[in-house]
Design brief:
The structure is a single chain. A hairpin with a 2-residue loop joins strand 5 (about 125-130) and strand 6. This protein is about 40% helix and about 20% strand. It has one domain (about 5-145): CBS-domain (Roll), CATH 3.10.580. It is globular and about 50 Å long. With about 150 residues, the protein is of the alpha/beta class. The strands form two sheets. It has a three-stranded mixed beta sheet. About 20% of the residues are buried. It contains seven helices and six strands. It starts with a helix and ends with a helix.
């Protein structure tokens, strides 16, 4: 079986000139955690996930000498957290999106896609055909395909 036979479509996506605010609105509206970023020709130019957002707004313990003291300092840092969150909303999506995107081709075999999802520990792969975004495959798509008829 090939990618195009199990992929989800249409694909929720954002444009490369959109803001993080628009990304988060799509996450909330559709109950999703990641989106391909496309240019005006619908070519994949990035991928943004909830993890990218967490990295931006989160406070990292490596800024401090001692992890124990860092956890104590983080508890009293709500104002800075809210400030980082507000600032993030107006940033362009490409300022936090990954630009090295792992993709699946329209005719990739599902077994190969499953291997990539597992090895790279990612949740979804955008699917492209002739360089254009045409679908998305999630771990759930693969599991439903692999086990739907066996249970």
């Amino acid at each position: 079986m090939q990618a195009h036979e199990i992929m989800s479509k249409p694909v929720y996506k954002v444009k490369q000139n959109d803001t993080v605010r628009q990304v988060i609105e799509r996450f909330i509206e559709h109950g999703i955690s990641g989106l391909p970023v496309v240019n005006d020709r619908n070519e994949i130019v990035g991928y943004v996930s909830d993890g990218d957002i967490m990295r931006y707004i989160g406070k990292h313990a490596d800024r401090y000498v001692d992890f124990f003291y860092a956890s104590v300092l983080i508890q009293g840092d709500n104002e800075q957290f809210e400030e980082r969150a507000r600032r993030l909303l107006d940033l362009g999506v490409m300022s936090i999106a990954k630009t090295k995107v792992i993709k699946a081709a329209w005719d990739d075999e599902v077994e190969n896609i499953a291997a990539v999802l597992g090895k790279k520990q990612i949740k979804k792969l955008p699917v492209e055909r002739d360089g254009v975004l045409v679908g998305i495959i999630s771990r759930g798509n693969v599991v439903r395909h692999a086990f739907g008829n066996l249970l």
